Amino acid sequence: MKKTKRNSLIIVLVVVLLALAIGYAAFSSTLTINGNVNGAASWDIKFTEAKLLAADGTTTADTSYGTATISEDGLTVTATIKLSYPGDGVILQTVVTNNGQIPAKLKSVDITNPTSADVKVTPATPTEGEELVAGGKCTTQYVIKWDSNSKATSVSDTFKVKFTYEQNTTDFNGTGAHTNA
Amino acid sequence: MQKSKNATLALIFLILGYGLLATFYLSSAYNIAYLYIINPIFWILIAGVLRIVLGKSLENRKLKKSIMEYIVIAVLVYIITYMVSGLFVTFGKNPFSTTLIGLFTNLWILGVEIVAREYIRYKLINNVYEKYKMKIAVVISIVYIIIQINLGQYINAKLTALIIVKVVCQTLLPLIAKNLLFSYTSIYCGYMPAVIYELTTHLYLWLSPILPNAPWVMSAIIDFVIPIILFLYIRYVKNKLNIFRSKENIINSDPRNIIILVVLIILAIWFAVGVFPIKPVAIASGSMEKVLYVGDVAIIKKCNANDVNEGDIIEYQMQGFTVVHRIIQKSQKNGEFYFITKGDNNNSPDSDEVREDQLIGKVIYKIKYIGYPAIWLHLLQEDKQENVTVETGK
Please, which of B27, B39, B136, B339 could form a disulfide with B354 given CB 3.0 to 4.6 Å? Predict the structure, then answer.
């Protein structure tokens, strides 16, 4: 490619880039923006584990209690729960891992509770602002229980949890994740 | 200092040793101290020592100027491609701190390493005689790939076939492409092309308030193909400027012949994996017969729950596979849509309700027969994985 052609190409590309930037700014209210981006260079925070546990919080629950799945982007856990009788329950355990290079802090926790009023969820949710160091893990357990006084005959429901993290640049002396590993 | 292959190799292995120590011990044992003090100081120290001991190296100024212009073009194409890709997918907020403090923090903890690492690469490659330069470039590229791939996260991790493919495509191949490019430019025109490419592409990630929520296949291809095409172009320019060049050599290294083909292949891969608003899916069961037959390809338009109604044929996600069935009932509970679905050729509805977050899109068109190759590939995969049962939505 000749020098003049190269220079023309650079000018065209700069103009396209500026036009895109201006377009982004002008139409920012109509762009679909979903949470925080994950998987950019040096930034990789996602759920790495999601499972249903028995009442002791360590033994894996029977498969009849349902399933816990991590979304393809690793940012949401969905548990499909099937409980057998009033008073029955199961624990959902999630692990978030910071595989990136920089420390993050928890910006928000979005929980979609079960639709049934007979199912109660008691989360041990980490507090917003909590730091997750590079390489750190945050383990959280949610107790999902069918209300003992319920008159329903069966319970089958879903429960979703989504954590959003952002870079932590203000406080380098955080207490780490819920459970450090 | 006299050029020395042994001293160069010793330094490369020192960097490898430090990289492995950092991955498996320093980063976890001294987390914050490692990030803000140990790591930047290590790279500055090695770069500073090499600057003092080796002094300045000679460069081909004419080639350097051309290469810098190609690097600027590649960086602009990289950023524009990412920005445009957001129009096909969606955008997300940048998780990096885009404040001035955030910028300086990232420049210190990541930028310093980028600049020093490329300076060290350049100095070490040019600290040996001409005949050894390629070998040293290969060794240092391998060492840099090892220390950048973050091996620590794969220890004790459950490695499935999909995770291995993701690691290879998303991390390993882009690292190979970038190291190939940076080592090549280090040999012929210094460390600045590598620094400018690496730093400006990172600056875009650190400073843009929004970024595309690009699927991993999309970002893997962008991160791999742009450095590879840039490498081929620079090799072509270098051959053209070579006074001992042969015409055949120049024609053989002209990358323009393959660029259109590469772009078409990339677009086809992106379409097949669902990067664009419409995507194809091969029909593998007869549950929708009379409308969709085995071997047909259904064209799916991605949409949300508000855009589909009873009677629409939708594709939805199950655990490990997707199903294409018709909506027979749509309801709303607690602000969330639920669907009861059924295959036209089935006697009863599907056993589980479909949640709105399982919805992928609705069928807008079908093409007959062209889905057979995808089904045969799927069946071959099933034969290889006898223990895995893949349901295809009967």
Answer: B339
- Choose among A155, A158, A157, A159: nearest CA to A88: A155
CB B225, CB B266: distance < 8 Å: yes
- The answer to whether A20 contacts B91, with C-beta atoms less than 8 Å apart, is no
Chain segment B69-121, per-residue pLDDT in tens: 889 999 999 999 888 888 777 788 888 888 888 899 999 999 999 999 999 99
Tell me if B20 sits within 8 A of B147, measured CB to CB.
yes
Residues of A in contact with B73 (CB under 8 A): 6, 9-10, 13
Output Rg (C-alpha) for chain B, integer angstroms: 26
What's this model's pTM, rounded to 2 decimal places?
0.78
- Kindly list the distances between the CA atom of residue B378 and the CA atoms of A152, B295, B374, B386, B390, in Å, as whole numbers in the listed order: 43, 12, 6, 12, 9
Cβ neighbours of B152 in A, within 8 Å: 135
Can you read off the two tokens belonging to residue B225?
Answer: 């193909």
Q: Which CATH number fits domain A45-167: 2.60.40, 2.40.128, 3.90.580, 2.30.320?
A: 2.60.40
Regarding an ipTM greater than 0.90, the answer is: no
Position B142 in a domain? yes
A132-169 pLDDT, tens digit per residue, is 888 888 898 888 888 888 777 777 777 888 888 888 87
Q: Which domain holds residue B89?
A: 5-213
CA-nearest residue to B201 within chain A is A41
